[in-house]
Amino acid sequence: FTTTLLSWTAIEHESGLSSAKQLAYLRQAIRWGSDFISQAHTDPTTLYTQVSTRCLS
Fold first, then answer.
1. What per-residue string of b and e applies to 23-40 under the rule 16 or more CB within 10 Å gives b?
2. Which GO terms describe its biological process (predicted)?
3. Integer angstrom CA distances of residue 39 from 2, 19, 45, 50
4. Closest CA to 23 of 13, 36, 33, 35
5. Containing domain of residue 35, as a range?
6. Burial category of 17 from C-beta neighbours within 10 Å (exposed 0-12, middle 13-18, buried 19 and up)
7. pLDDT classification of 23: cutoffs 50, 70, 90
């Protein structure tokens, strides 16, 4: 979800992010998320995920 939202933000607000000199940082964050997802999906039938049963409250 986060990587999708960051990508959408880059598309919708590219000029503002560019003028604020933040576009490169956003692209770096998107790249990190995309690489993480790609590495977790090792073949067509395998996707590694992280699950926790710990209560955070």
1. beebeeebeebeeeeeee
2. cellulose catabolic process
3. 17, 32, 13, 13
4. 13
5. 1-57
6. middle
7. very high
CB-CB contact of 36 with 13 (8 Å): no
CB 37 within 8 A of CB 3: yes
Residue recorded with tokens 């067509």? 44
Q: Report pLDDT digits (tens) over 25-43.
A: 999 999 999 998 888 998 9
Domain count, the chain: 1
